[in-house]
Amino acid sequence: MTYQEVLQAARTYSGPYCKACPVCNGRACGSTMPGPGAKGSGTVAIRNYEAWQNVCLNMDTICENGPVDTAFTFFGERYDLPVFAGPVGAVKLHYGDKFTDMEYNEILVDACAKAGIAAFTGDGTDPTVFDAASKAIGRNGGKGIPTVKPWDKDTLFAKLDAAKASGAKVFAMDIDAAGLPFLKGLNPPAGSKTVAELREVIEYAGVPFIIKGIMTVKGAKKALEAGAAGIVVSNHGGRVQDGVPSTAAVLPAIADAVKGQMVIMVDGGIRSGVDVCKALALGADACILARPYVTAVYGGGAEGVKVLTDKLKGELQDTMAMCGVHSLKEISRDMIF
Ligand SMILES: Cc1cc2nc3c(=O)[nH]c(=O)nc-3n(C[C@H](O)[C@H](O)[C@H](O)COP(=O)(O)O)c2cc1C
Asked: Is 269 touching ligand 1 by the criterion CB < 6 Å?
């Protein structure tokens, strides 16, 4: 299958809201929620995408002509490239009937591990979804990151117990989910957490813990203080708060504040290996792509995941070669124009 064929097939299968656009830039879906759009005006997802397009790279064309290595080590696991599939929950609600969350996660986790990357998996009110995703990650040797919502303590601890038993080795929490319209007034209850509350959760988890949904230096420092091993610079693709900056705009200052003290990941509108290279140059250690991997699964199942991952890898290798770097550790801020 080619990437174009994956997109073409996804147009038939991804429900009434997602148009599986040639580039997933937030325009066609706008503020469609339910659906893959963004909250309120719907402009934050567009801003995320455009911000990467406005970052330019410096070529360095007089350099050694050697192979380019995109290998990335993440808490002891080696991956082919610094890219993860993002957590996406309630796929039936947002992308139509083709898959349940459980079916979607099974395909995604397995296919990502086979394609040389790993998937973050989503969470929701149905406890079996998180449980099954954690088990799929366990079956794939711990290659994947179960991402729990900021529930009340009892619910959280029960989910973490199940995730630990399944063999997952790194956990995450989308702390910003407190802003999701779907999560208001639910049972079990979910909402914001203080540094002390987060620390308790992280200590209980007993494995490297990533906090997703950090958009400021202040937030990154709080995550560090709570004992997080990593953060995802993310505005949830615009789904939790309207009127916020793009992730590309806030990343450099956050990286300046906490780089080397924790793993820094970033998501939001990253759509190509060129964008991945830009994100690393601005200070990220790795990137997450969420909506594009949904399209890949809906359009091509496991093969779609491989097609997208190979495409990203080729683009990243090409960009690194043209910028005169041969390994991820050589990527630096001075590559940005
Ligand atoms: C339909 C949908 C469902 C999502 N569900 C989750 C979720 O369960 N947990 C989570 O951490 N993020 C969730 N996200 C946010 C994504 O993981 C990601 O942060 C966001 O979409 C930005 O990345 P992107 O522009 O590559 O899609 C969801 C996003 C979408 C579009």
From this structure: yes
